[in-house]
Amino acid sequence: MFKGVLIDKNAAGYQATLAELGEEQLPAGEVTVAIDYSTMNYKDGLAITGQSPVVRSFPMVPGVDLSGSVTHSVHPEFHPGDRVVLNGWGVGEMHWGGLAQKGRFKGDWLLHLPETLTTREAMIIGTAGYTAMLAVIALEQHGLTPDRGEVVVTGAAGGVGSVAILLLAKLGYTIAAVTGRPEERDYLTALGAKVIIDRKELAAPGKPLGRERWAGAIDAVGGHVLANVCAAMRHRGVVAACGLAGGMAFPATVAPFILRGVTLVGIDSVLCPRAERAEAWRRLAADLNTATLAGIAREIGLAETIALAPRLLAGQVRGRTVVDVNR
Fold it and tell me: Are residues 170 and 105 in the same domain?
């Protein structure tokens, strides 16, 4: 038997509980993993609370990412003892995820963990950091370099934003951080942000085009914030959109795109091709200072995840939350 967070929906309603599970309950898959760590992401908060129909089948173990060691495998690429990491692919939504002590998965969903990272460090990075790296790579692929000008990061005190600032600072960019929590100014400055912007400046309907401010952007908020960021991009600026904490709507015009040549790039971390995932994790292992990384994380046990979920959705959780599933 092993422990896991179990979500079910029945006559009693939608509920998440800490449950005792048997290995025979695990879904089909080629690789069985003894999980060391998972994380709490925005999507996990939605799954646990039921505030959005994230979970597609019941019962479900949430957790969109995990790290651990292989205990059994019929996949040629993985063997018992291999350290692995998994992000996305519908785990925690359509396939049992990482908020449990064991999991079974398709081999093609897994990656070998870079040798320089521990399983805990991998989950300090987690889906949030992996998504941030995909966004940074997208900016680079569209020609952004540090000499082009300032880069703005929205949702800056959250998981994606925190890692994005660490990465951009390490790469030499000047960073403006947008946050709805002005009390996090010192935290964001310590990560590497040079300018702190109150989200209120961008959260209301704005003009089709604003003053040219930024050469690049990583947006984890969506809604009016994303629209106003696009409107304030410099000529040939690049925006990587990777989140919707502020809503799914995009109340913008085509003006930034046809008058300034702004590029809006969507970041899909869930179904991203395996080769791109591997490159993102290679870059994360190379570009992140693990000592600095530890400063953006808090650790909780498996039993604490259910109570944390509503706070996460309310924007009350800073940085990254690592879940030690074995305590």
Answer: no
Is residue 281 domain-resident? Answer: no
Query: CB of 67 within 8 A of CB of 83?
Result: yes
For the chain, 327 residues long, give each residue's pLDDT as a single digit of tens. 999 999 999 888 899 999 999 999 999 999 999 999 999 999 999 999 999 889 989 999 999 999 999 999 999 999 999 999 999 999 999 999 999 999 999 999 999 999 999 999 999 999 999 999 999 999 999 999 999 999 999 999 999 999 999 999 999 999 999 999 989 999 999 999 999 999 999 999 999 999 999 999 999 999 999 999 999 999 999 999 999 888 899 999 999 999 999 999 999 999 999 999 999 999 999 999 888 888 899 999 999 999 999 999 998 998 999 999 999
3-state secondary structure of 173: coil
* Tally of domains within the chain: 2
Q: Considering only CA atoms, which of 90, 94, 189, 170 is closest in space to residue 132?
A: 170
Residues 142 and 24 in one domain: no
**Exposure pattern of 126-143 as b/e (b: 16+ CB <10 Å)?**
bbbbbbbbbbbbbbeeee
- The CATH number for 251's domain is 3.40.50.720
Longest distance between any two alpha carbons in the chain, whole Å = 61
In a domain, 81, yes or no: yes
Residue 272 located in a structural domain:
no
Range of the domain at 82: 2-113+296-324
User: What's the pTM value of the predicted model, to 2 decimals?
Assistant: 0.93
